[in-house]
Specification:
Oligomer: homotetramer
Mean pLDDT of chain A: 94
Structural class of chain A: alpha+beta
Helix content of chain A: 10-25%
Largest interface: A-B, 35 and 35 residues
Radius of gyration of chain A: 14 Å
Number of helices of chain A: 3
Amino acid sequence: MNTSLDQGIEQAIRGSFDRQGLMSTLGARIDAIAPGRVTLSLPIGPAVSQQHGFAHAGASFALGDSAAGYAALSLMPPGSEVLTVEMKVNLIAPAAGVRLIALGEVMKPGRRLSVVRATLWAEDAEGSRRETALFQGTMIPA
Amino acid sequence: MNTSLDQGIEQAIRGSFDRQGLMSTLGARIDAIAPGRVTLSLPIGPAVSQQHGFAHAGASFALGDSAAGYAALSLMPPGSEVLTVEMKVNLIAPAAGVRLIALGEVMKPGRRLSVVRATLWAEDAEGSRRETALFQGTMIPA
Amino acid sequence: MNTSLDQGIEQAIRGSFDRQGLMSTLGARIDAIAPGRVTLSLPIGPAVSQQHGFAHAGASFALGDSAAGYAALSLMPPGSEVLTVEMKVNLIAPAAGVRLIALGEVMKPGRRLSVVRATLWAEDAEGSRRETALFQGTMIPA
Amino acid sequence: MNTSLDQGIEQAIRGSFDRQGLMSTLGARIDAIAPGRVTLSLPIGPAVSQQHGFAHAGASFALGDSAAGYAALSLMPPGSEVLTVEMKVNLIAPAAGVRLIALGEVMKPGRRLSVVRATLWAEDAEGSRRETALFQGTMIPA
């Protein structure tokens, strides 16, 4: 439990996450929530693969975008929801391994718009991690 | 059948698509392949939803990115594979409806890099379409 | 003169453009204004060059971003000003020639945000044009 | 002098910078060069202004893009040159003050492509700095 994070905000994020069918389809889960920082992960496997067995860019995007969105939501007024305005991803290494981990971070919170970044790592069976993608984008309260 | 598209290229695209576990997980299919232009679609439903029942940005991204990638692949030499270098999406309307359709297009083919765009529409039960997202990115032969 | 464009809007765009020191520094001018579409140009020369004598990516960006911003402003309520939220450019060919031309277009006007694209061409001394850059971004009323 | 940076690379960066007419037009200078990190700055004034007297997004882009490009060049083999493949900028605060400072950083060097980020600050007359823009993009050896 994160003592500095409002309990209502944490519940709002967990509730929203649980209502996202795609997160369940991808097997994603919330690993950590802190003010302005949210970590999500999903298992790399056939359900999220591209043609070489690595995680598909679409699965990488879904995880990084969601981590960034919930990071933004964690700093918004209670009762807010969040939408992605735009998101850009640079894919820097194949997402090979057993688990994909996304850390979303708020770079600039705002009443009208929030600027966010996210980092994605692929973790192998021994727990060593390799950076696979970098995100930069804009979130808006809905 | 597209008479101006090399049969080997079309088979390579269909084969690659069939090996992408995520496309199957999302229920995506290939609607059309032409030189430099590929159309994909997927049914909007609980498996790809965000918290309001619209298609999740991650599902939108996966479809648009794949359409753009296969459009690039359609102009590459036989035997090529394609990877996303980077992709940016602007989400312009909620992806509400029954079907999501992505048209990927090559703006500038290249030996080293291809610049691509994609357009996403959500189609309702009556068949009317609304533009929901615009993509611009870079593909590289693998 | 464009009869379908509000005269006040056209004056607002021309006035704003004239107050942008950088446009004057770069030698840029307004070539055309229509609702949702603005064309700007600048002479390619030593003042805007990179190390090979082509127009610098920074000059290309300034022209494309401004064309896109004024295109967005042309559809905003009278008295508005416009700011770039974010902009992405793909550079697809060297900006070699005598003149750089930017067409900015509104893809999705909005009360809160407008999604824009721009295309850049380099024109040679004979008047033939080559596409050099593609932009996609977001504008906000200020 | 940076003892860990190859002297030839530093000279190549300074030589390339000096041949960029736009950097001279904007009054930009190199503040620091280290392996994978380059800092540039320019005075905020009428020559680079937008309609409110702040630095124009085009000037911000030119500085951030150049800092990122030279950061990439600092890790490339001697004799290389560098081109921007694509660049995305999020503008997060008005570039108000007396000086604009850009730090370019290599996130992932590569033989074929380098992924870069840059941060821009506006500095006021008292020397206090405010973050104004975040960049993420791709560089390629020319």
